Amino acid sequence: MIRMLTKKDRDLVLTFASDRPAENLFILGDIEAFGMEGDTITLWGDFNEQGELLSILLRYLGNFIPYARDPDLLDGHTWAKVMLESGQLKHFSGLQNLVEKIIPHIDVPILKKQLCHYAKRDTRLPIDQTLIRKDVKMLFPEEAEKVVALRNSIFTNYTETPSMLQKNMDKGSSRTYYIERNNELVSSVSTAAETAGAAMIVGVCTKKEYEHQGFATSCLIKTIGALTAEHKQPCLFYDNPSAGRIYEKLGFVPIEKWMMVNY
């Protein structure tokens, strides 16, 4: 039986999803930020005859994310019907083995489909502090334009503005560590979508002329250390195999591929 979830179901949903904080980073983060119901967010749950929760579906604006502890208990046909009847389906994302159970039942043309590797790091793993350079600094929110300028010089189609980044830093869902030369950022690592139990690592970058000096690794390990101290599990997306090998050396292990679909 599928029904819409309300704030009365908050503890039930958090218990259901919090055992895998990295896998459910976006679901948990949206619940923390927006609650359980409203114009921005809607949650549904699928229950068996005994009243046990089998799977959930989150809508954040036009994006939908499903989750089930056991993929075999996820009803792809029914969840597809919920998404279509909402009239708000624009984006669909989640763990590949869950998303692929629902996609065949959505009779809407797909504009784009993308797969990324998804990895996490156990918070109990030791951290080699000797790899952290002494000149790694933490960015203040009012300095957001510095890291945005660095990313714009490295990443194509980067869209985040200084005000957007500062807003996220002010509310505690993002932080940045960096190294600078001549009063200019040359390498940085940030977090995004931080929740009580996990955080997404993003924006790992170094200016070309400063590559292969351990700058990004130092910023990354500093970030991992800060998150671990707060019992937040670091996780990240990547699609570059060489980047994946670097992350594996730092203790990240694959979760599963993350699938993103645009309609």
TrEMBL record:
Domain of life: Bacteria
MF-aspect GO terms: acyltransferase activity, transferring groups other than amino-acyl groups
Pfam families linked: GNAT_acetyltran
N-acetyltransferase domain residues: 134-263
UniProt signal peptide: none
InterPro entries from the UniProt entry: Acyl_CoA_acyltransferase (IPR016181), GNAT_acetyltra_YdfB-like (IPR027365), GNAT_dom (IPR000182)
Protein name listed in UniProt: N-acetyltransferase domain-containing protein
Species of origin: Sporolactobacillus nakayamae
Taxonomic lineage of the native organism: Bacteria, Bacillati, Bacillota, Bacilli, Bacillales
